[in-house]
From TrEMBL:
One of its GO terms (biological process) is xylan catabolic process. Belongs to the glycosyl hydrolase 43 family. The record marks D136 as: Important for catalytic activity, responsible for pKa modulation of the active site Glu and correct orientation of both the proton donor and substrate. This is Alpha-N-arabinofuranosidase. One of its GO terms (molecular function) is hydrolase activity, hydrolyzing O-glycosyl compounds. Pfam families: Glyco_hydro_43. InterPro entries: Glyco_hydro_43, Glyco_hydro_beta-prop_sf, Glycosyl_Hydrlase_43_Enz. Keywords: Carbohydrate metabolism, Glycosidase, Hydrolase, Polysaccharide degradation, Xylan degradation. SUPFAM superfamilies: Arabinanase/levansucrase/invertase. The active site is at D37, E201.
């Protein structure tokens, strides 16, 4: 039986959980961390993942099922290494797995693979999504059926290297007083296999409408976007990276601008933090990871979940574990 705040599986190291309700169950699309003792660096080379397993829960109290390898890098023609945080979506009888990996030139791109079942196996497209870059895709299908991909991550995720619109291998970080880099959003085409138009940068602002600054590491975007809707508002949540928090901002529009609100999850064991938010049977859940299963090794993580609560004004109650 799955227990809240405990790893949902212990036979694999898992991270970056994207949770969805498909066919009446909770399906979780995590990264599958490789159990190695190699060196660690800010480029994220230690995150050397090669495949994805899909997990499912009939309900939050039931045992977690591992559906086995859903996609392996050897079956992705364009990818060379590092299958990082994925997400999944459903449209008209097909399930889509969106995933970042480095291409043959070492540049992170975002690919898509399809399956007839939410558990896979997934069949990758020949090439990555044209115009895609960086990491951490999160796909949100709105009530009007329009689908949006949010993505982007600093440092090893290479987002800074795209600030001119093309890949600049030596691009520097922003000065602390400059507006921070925002995540990107692109609407997906009807077949979910391409972008309708070029990705746009999302603005995240404070209550006065001023953009969050690069030096505002407690609030500015780092990686791991997630989009959900609550009471008609769009909630963009993400990791602050260097300050290890999951925070959120809200908007009336899926493309923003988003107004910063506060912290969803305080720092957990390990450097990275990455989450998703899902409604199941009228309750809301926060799926997240920490590194407790490995005794704190940053690249050997485990997926957990806990219930999430809203205040009457729509604010999310901060979770501290
Ligand atoms: O799992 C590899 C990377 O670590 C993810 O892409 C980031 O979000 C962070 O969790």
């Amino acid at each position: 039986m799955s227990v809240h705040n405990e790893p949902i599986v212990t036979h694999l190291y898992t991270a970056d959980p994207s949770a969805h309700v498909f066919e009446g169950k909770l399906y979780i699309y995590p990264s599958h961390d490789v159990d190695h003792d190699g060196p660690t660096n800010d480029n994220g080379d230690q995150y050397a993942m090669e495949d994805y397993h899909v997990l499912s829960l009939d309900n939050p109290a039931s045992p977690c099922v591992d559906h086995g390898v859903a996609l392996h890098i050897r079956d992705v023609p364009w990818a060379s290494k590092q299958m990082w945080a994925p997400d999944a979506a459903y449209r008209r009888g097909t399930y889509y797995l969106f995933f970042p990996a480095r291409d043959k030139d070492g540049i992170f791109r975002i690919g898509v693979a399809t399956a007839a079942s939410p558990a896979g196996p997934f069949q990758a497209q020949e090439s990555y999504i044209e115009g895609s870059y960086s990491i951490d895709p999160a796909v949100f299908v709105d009530e009007d059926e329009r689908a949006y991909m949010y993505f982007g991550g600093l440092w090893g995720g290479q987002l800074e290297k795209w600030h001119t619109g093309s890949f600049q291998p030596d691009a520097a970080e922003k000065n602390p007083e400059e507006p921070a880099y925002g995540p990107r959003v692109a609407e997906l085409s009807e077949d979910m296999l391409s972008f309708k138009s070029a990705p746009q940068e999302i603005a995240i602002v404070d209550e006065e409408g001023n953009p969050l600054l690069a030096g505002d590491e407690d609030r500015r975007y780092f990686e791991g976007p997630w989009m959900h809707k609550y009471m008609g508002k769009y909630y963009l949540s993400y990791s602050t990276g260097t300050t290890h928090k999951i925070v959120y901002a809200v908007s009336d529009n899926p493309s923003g601008p988003f107004v910063f609100q506060g912290t969803i999850l305080n720092p957990v064991v390990g450097w990275t933090t990455h989450h998703s938010i899902v409604e199941f049977n009228d309750k809301w859940y926060l799926f997240y990871h920490d590194a407790s299963l490995s005794g704190g090794v940053d690249h050997k993580r485990c997926v957990k979940f806990t219930e999430l609560h809203y205040e009457e004004d729509g604010k999310i109650r901060t979770v501290s574990l």
